[in-house]
Amino acid sequence: MMFKRNVMAVSTAALTIGLAQPSSAEVAFDGPSTGPAGADSKSVVVVAGDLKNGGILGVTKGIEEAAAAIGWEIRVLDGAGSIQGRTAAIGQAVALKADGVIINGFDAVEQQAALEGVVNANIPMVSWHSGPHIGCDAPGGIFVNVSTDAMAVSEVAAKWAIEDGADKVGAVIFTDSTYQIAIDKADRIKETIEAMGGTVLEYVDTPIADTSARMGPLTTSLLQKYGSEWTHALAINDLYFDFMGPALASVGIKSDKGPQAGSAGDGSEAAFQRIRSDSYQAVTVAEPLNLQGWQLIDELNRAIQGEACSGYVTTPALVTQEGLEKLGESNQFDPDSPYRETYASIWDK
């Protein structure tokens, strides 16, 4: 069965669709234009949930780029996809007497006890994707949780599937109940698919950290169970599709013949490459990862200096093969706006 590729008609008010803007047409930066000057010589620890995750890695690169601009030292500690690893990394951040901590890509509730150590040490803390609360005054002593609107992202991914498959959508949704935000995103995908007349064949709970071992056997099992009824695979993160494609290829299913894959986050380089080459992923709803890294440094600078958080929430984009053709060789969603110059100007750098 062939699947149509014209998905540019999917629309939602909050999102840029298809990355269709010309690369030469710079758009205005929609974030803050004022704030405190950059604090001098700060040492910041980034606690990364798992650097194998393309979203976490992309944000980390943005943090490092922004830190160089503001003149701060960054140390990255990799939790390596395990609860114990993240706990140990948080403890190390406290022991290092960091001037600030960035929680990057894991649920704060999971690490509540460890994060209390950061709060008790009076270390300002910001986060990326630490829970369902987006923006200022996140729970657990977090100054701000940087993210796009996760529910809007989920709706766009689900609407893409309906637009792509019309009334014949049979979806399998992949999520990870380790993270409350992942459950919420998957639930919204399911609700949207069903509300628009599609069918959710199965809701698969499998840890993101174990995708390399689990996705191959899971894909084979789901193919045996549903056959051609399985038309779309939807996941809360691109990482699931790093390992689904090889399993489909191993049983002789070509990219345009099997279930079409769409991710509700985060827009990894690997996902862009798959979409560009029509290789077992059709779309991703990407976040501006590099920009969010700069935002995290700006928000941490505000926290360190006792200022209010900016309240800025970034906008994601539905990334399609057609949209990527307009981007040349770029494999990331990096808005064509002067956010770097704006933040540097705020910091007086």
What does this protein structure show overall?
It contains eleven helices and 13 strands. The termini are far apart. The longest helix is centred in the N-terminal third of the chain and has 17 residues, at 54-70. The strands form two sheets. Strands 1-13-12-11-10-8-9 form a seven-stranded mixed sheet, with helices on both faces. Strands 3-2-4-5-7-6 form a six-stranded mixed sheet, sandwiched between helices. With 349 residues, it is an alpha/beta fold. 50% of the residues are buried.
In short:
The protein is of the alpha/beta class.
Features:
349 residues, alpha/beta, 38% helix, 17% strand, globular, disordered N terminus
Order of helices and strands: EEHEHEHEEEHEHEHEHEHEHEHH
State the helix count.
11
Sheet with the most strands: spatial strand order:
1-13-12-11-10-8-9
State Rg.
20 Å
Task: Give the topology, please.
Layout: E1 16-17, E2 43-48, H1 54-70, E3 73-78, H2 83-95, E4 100-104, H3 112-120, E5 125-128, E6 135-138, E7 142-146, H4 150-165, E8 170-175, H5 180-195, E9 199-205, H6 211-226, E10 232-235, H7 241-250, E11 260-263, H8 269-276, E12 283-286, H9 289-304, E13 317-319, H10 321-325, H11 339-346
Parallel strand pairs: 1-13, 2-3, 2-4, 4-5, 5-7, 8-9, 8-10, 10-11, 11-12
Antiparallel strand pairs: 6-7, 12-13
Helix pairs in contact: 1-9, 2-3, 4-5, 6-7
